[in-house]
Specification:
Elements (H helix, E strand, L loop, with lengths): L2 H21 L7 H17 L23 E3 L8 E3 L2 H14 L5 E7 L2 E8 L2 E7 L5 E3 L2 H5 L14 E9 L2 H13 L8 H9 L4 H6 L3 E10 L7 H10 L8 E3 L2 H13 L8 E8 L2 H7 L9 E4 L5 E13 L5 E12 L2 E7 L3 H7 L6 E5 L7 E5 L24 E3 L6 E3 L8 H9 L11 H9 L14 H5 L6 H13 L5 H7 L7 H11 L2 H5 L3 H6 L4 H13 L1 H12 L19 E5 L7 H10 L3 E3 L8 E4 L5 H8 L4 E2 L1 H9 L1
Parallel strand pairs: 2-11, 19-20, 19-21, 21-22
Antiparallel strand pairs: 1-6, 3-9, 3-10, 4-5, 4-7, 7-8, 10-11, 12-13, 12-15, 13-14, 15-16, 17-18
Helix pairs in contact: 1-2, 3-9, 12-13, 16-17, 17-22
Bound molecules: adenosine monophosphate.
Length: 658
């Protein structure tokens, strides 16, 4: 067989297997066979790249990243739906329909809580997919949609043009897994599957989207050139015959039947792979739809029934406080187990101290719980008439429940945060930050390695890294002899990074890279910094009162002292890589202009400030020097007008050296 025919055959065979697996949920090809065929196709495509077609299953893993999304105009608008909240409103709707039409049948479907997209096919080939946007113009997310395996790339019928509309979602099990992984990696969690799906579909890099394992249910035929249908049900059957996963639907005749189906759907929601945020009721006959028409935004022939969030009372048995990886204290109510929206609930989120005091939630209270699309239920209200005697307002502890270090309130919010330098709850995050490129830059010690080190209790503080042996590292998963040796060397080399990086690596609140540099060049050694008073620290430009207070508190905490002592014991350098700067720029104001070669603007400014000078953004009579790099513009002219001395980058560098 020639390679072209073989490629064609492989594509067809693999696409068919995909369809069985992803659409029918009834696989008929073993994984290793699938992998073998796919590999063969990849080989042929590598040898004959000109033969790669858009419908090739190899094109679903995500191609090159985009700069931005193109806009796409929808030839048939993607309309919104009128919400209703009660059976009476359903009856009003069917009443309106029956007034306009002699009789009517309705399709009742789950409303998938995801993102609406339009999929366009030309001559049976998927050519474009777009988000809903404002309904008329959306964004071209074709490459991301290709990664959704239940979207067919080619169709059996080769209509000149076909557009279908569906809802993309993240399956609930994928969502929970993703969030578990994010939690382990210390990344922020997605609030619900909808947000996760939206975030994934709007990734410019389709490879990220591919990993998110999105799925789709197609619920409407937008356009099918050369075909006509009488009912919505027929269009869904047709769409299914073309290889799409369609929305489950039932065609019913009366408001009572619709009500019963809505209730049934509501009860079955736990079994669905997607989150359902309502039920949609639509006229089934397409000509009837034409008769009743649409308003500017919504069709008149459909409504979305929104289920009320289920609410149940339960008693607060206790309030427990957990410490997250970033050190934030999160209070949680432990409640008497209660069945709510399909699951047994044993605790509820209390967000933070302000939330608790705002609602005055106390241990012993009976509270009303509700699940509103989020994973953990929330407290809607307290029932004060059921409050037992002797309860007291609840206050979060002022020391960390895990390590006992003091807790501080975030300067910009309601969160309370543990300050412990060796707090076990924050260890993973502290370790990965410590080893990260801009901090101690320890190659080969990423989040996965750190997780194992913690699990095996080989490391309890960042300082323990320096006492690891090659044998210990070799015992970790996916760590060979060579990489263990490299890791040991990388750890040892990091001892000499210098005080500026160390200060940043320690994770003191508000001490970023810039503050690390400023403090290091001002004090020269850790011990000199540790001896500085809060006033001295506050006096440094770029530090300020808040940061100074954080630094002092950190320095005084026993955990920090222990950590520093261990780092010293390990031979980690506590000296600045440059000598302390002194105060030679006191009273001087510098203005930087143009592109400097050796420093970024921020670095140059930090160096000036570390020597007691000021870096300003505009030239005035008060300016002492203007430092002019490549392509300096108006500031240089202004310096000329005001007779202000101008330094080249070299002259400036010499001044820095003193
Ligand atoms: P809304 O955005 O609240 O106006 O609700 C309308 C949206 O529900 C549509 O834009 C679709 O994205 C979505 N939807 C989900 N499932 C269905 C369905 N079975 N029929 C129609 N729309 C649906």
């Amino acid at each position: 067989m020639d390679y072209k025919s073989e490629m064609q055959q492989l594509r067809e065979e693999l696409n068919r297997a995909n369809y069985r697996y992803y659409v029918l949920d009834d696989p008929d090809m073993e994984d290793h066979v699938y992998d073998r065929l796919l590999r063969r196709l990849e080989e042929l495509e590598a040898a004959h790249p000109e033969e790669i077609t858009a419908d090739s299953p190899t094109q679903r893993v995500g191609g090159a990243a985009l700069e931005s999304f193109q806009q796409v105009e929808h030839p048939v608008p993607l309309e919104s739906l009128q919400d209703v909240f009660s059976q009476e409103e359903v009856e009003e709707f069917t009443g309106r329909m029956e007034e306009a039409l002699s009789s009517a049948a309705y399709s009742v479907e789950p409303k998938v809580d995801g993102l609406s997209v339009a999929l366009e096919y030309r001559d049976g080939v998927f050519v474009r997919g777009a988000t809903r946007g404002d309904g008329r113009v959306g964004e071209d997310v074709t490459e991301n949609l290709r990664t959704i395996k239940s979207i067919p790339m080619t169709l059996p019928d080769k209509l000149s043009r076909l557009i279908v509309r569906g809802e993309v979602f993240m399956p609930k099990n994928v969502f929970h897994k993703l969030n578990r992984q994010r939690e382990e990696a210390g990344q922020p969690l997605f609030a619900n599957p909808r947000n996760a799906a939206a975030g994934s579909l709007r990734q410019l890099d389709p490879k990220i989207c591919a990993r998110r394992l999105l799925d789709i249910r197609v619920f409407n035929l937008q356009l099918a050139e050369g075909r006509s249908f009488a009912t919505h049900g027929e269009t869904l059957d047709y769409i299914a015959s073309q290889g799409f996963q369609t929305i489950p639907h039932k065609v019913l005749g009366s408001a009572a039947e619709i009500g019963a189906e809505i209730a049934r759907l509501g009860e079955s929601r736990e079994e669905l792979p997607f989150d359902m945020d309502g039920a949609v009721v639509k006229l089934d006959s397409l000509s009837d739809r034409g008769t009743v028409g649409s308003t500017a935004k919504c069709p008149r022939w459909a409504i979305a029934y929104k289920y009320p969030p289920e609410q149940k009372p339960s008693r607060v048995l206790d309030i427990v406080v957990q410490v997250g990886r970033t050190g934030v204290l999160t209070p949680k109510a432990v409640v008497e187990p209660v069945r709510l929206a399909g699951t047994t609930v044993t605790n509820a989120t209390l967000h933070n101290q302000d939330f608790i005091l705002g609602k005055d939630i106390r241990i012993g209270d009976t509270v009303v719980l509700q699940k509103a699309g989020e994973i953990i239920p929330e407290v809607v209200a307290v029932l004060p008439e059921l409050r037992p005697e002797g309860t007291v307002p609840y206050h979060l502890p002022d020391v960390c429940p895990v390590c006992g270090a003091p807790v501080v309130r975030d300067e910009d919010g309601a969160a309370l945060r543990c300050t412990g330098a060796e707090c076990p709850a924050q260890l993973h995050r502290n370790l990965t930050h410590f080893a990260s490129r801009d901090a101690m830059d320890i190659d080969g010690m990423g989040p996965a390695v750190m997780s194992q080190l913690i699990e095996k209790e080989l490391v309890k503080t960042p300082a323990d890294l320096y006492f690891l042996t090659r044998e210990q590292l070799e015992g970790l998963e996916r760590m060979g002899k060579k990489s263990a040796q490299n890791a040991v060397e990388a750890i040892a080399a990091s001892r000499e990074r210098g005080l500026e990086r160390l200060l940043y690596a320690l994770g003191i609140r508000q001490v970023g890279q810039k503050a690390g540099k400023v403090l290091a060049s001002r004090f020269g050694s850790f011990d000199a910094l540790a001896a500085a008073s809060e006033e001295e620290l506050t006096a440094i430009d770029d530090v300020g009162a808040v940061t100074a207070a954080y630094i002092r508190a950190w320095l005084e905490d026993p955990q920090s002292r222990h950590l520093i002592a261990r780092l010293k014991e390990a031979g980690v350098s506590m000296e600045a890589s440059r000598q302390p700067a002194g105060n030679q720029f006191a009273g001087m104001t510098f203005v930087l202009t143009g592109a400097l070669e050796r420093f970024t603007r921020d670095e140059a400014a930090a160096l000036i400030e570390a020597r007691g000078g000021k870096a300003s953004g505009s030239v005035s009579k008060k300016t002492t020097y203007v430092v002019a790099g490549e392509n300096a513009g108006s500031k240089l002219r202004k310096a000329g007008e005001l007779n202000i001395p101008v330094l080249t980058e070299d002259q400036f560098a010499e001044m820095l050296e003193g």
